[in-house]
Amino acid sequence: MGMYLARSMWAFSYAAASFVTLVLTWVAITGAATRNRKINIALCILSNQLSELPLTVMCLDACFYTWLNITGTFQESLLVRFFYYTNIITAIGLLYLFKRSLDVQEPSQQFLHQFSKESKDWAELPGMASPRFWQQLLNPFHWPRDCTVHHNIPYWTQQEQLDAQQNDGWESVADMTLDIYRPNTVQGGDERPVLFYLHGGGWTSGSKQLVGPLLTEMIFYEWIVVSVNYRLNSKRGYPAQIIDSKRALRWVKEDIRAFGGNPANIVVAGDSEGGHIAALMALTANQADYQPGFESVDTSVQGCLGLSPVLDLLDLENYSNHDARTRFIKEVAKRDGSSQSAETCTAPIHYLEVPGGHHCFHLISSPRSWYCAIAAGQWLNHYFDGVPQRLKDNQRKREVHEVVEWDWDV
């Protein structure tokens, strides 16, 4: 009796897992979305992971199938045999997802070739014959190595701390911190470029600990990476997130040299909501409304990199969350009514559309995310690395304003 119950449990578990995988594979391929925000979030998170890790999912299914054979469940259960055949269809879909991930190599290489006349430093993106390709593919959950991490550095002033504590509580004050990733080969005073990174999370969630392949890639290039937290539940609402991010930028400009960074060579970057904030930081440099109490501080940056950034809340036709604008106004900005105004950018823009990329795909280590990270890293190096030497030669401040946007196309 006990053996029968165990086999039944394994059979139903296999059936449930197979059905969910089939549905998520379909969602990952088609990019299907609903009008329910919570369902969309769940589908996005799950199908995103499956889309970036199709071979891992196939290996897990093979292990499950092997176990069912060992226990005799496959031979005795019609349910298991039925879903075994449906998994063949799922496997075809997973292989298609893997191929589509590999297909990102070509547009990424073409993106880099735009600058080939200016520089001969571009490296060919690693293909399936490269050891690096398989090292990254087999390590989906990576963490930056060969660097020293300085955790939870507060960037508030004493008065800002008191104001935040009185208005939003101590937990919000704890959110006003940043982490610094310093490559072990970099010492204080080395004047290395700084990547100032803002996490995503729909303006109400997320963490500076969510680091993806891009941050690892820039640490490899000996950039200083600053990952920033900001208040997510301020009672005053938006733009508290932008103001906090500018406070963090103020701290970086004052103190990053001690960690080997160059305060005159900072590129802001972010994903999703973080990309939105990064873009607005670049577009509102030195605007007093967004830096109360430190209006005289220079908050200009040299460049901006957006990864799946939220840049248009007015056009709902191309946004999976159909009530995004209303939610932003009511829940994030905590205001009534709406605004039709928008910041505009007059700086050069470089754009790479990523085939098959789901929202925030770049947080998972996969061929697609690594191709994009390598391309973005070389783009950043091309425009912003080596600035200290040029500053010394030219004896003038470098004024470069570049924006690069990454988008997805399902």
UniProtKB/TrEMBL annotation:
UniProt superkingdom: Eukaryota
Segments forming domain BD-FAE-like: 178-351
Alphabetical list of Pfam families matching this protein: BD-FAE
Gene3D superfamilies per record: alpha/beta hydrolase
Transmembrane segments: 12-33, 82-98
Keywords annotated in UniProt: Hydrolase, Membrane, Transmembrane, Transmembrane helix
MF (Gene Ontology): hydrolase activity
The protein's name in its UniProt record: BD-FAE-like domain-containing protein
Species: Mortierella alpina
Species classification: Eukaryota, Fungi, Fungi incertae sedis, Mucoromycota, Mortierellomycotina
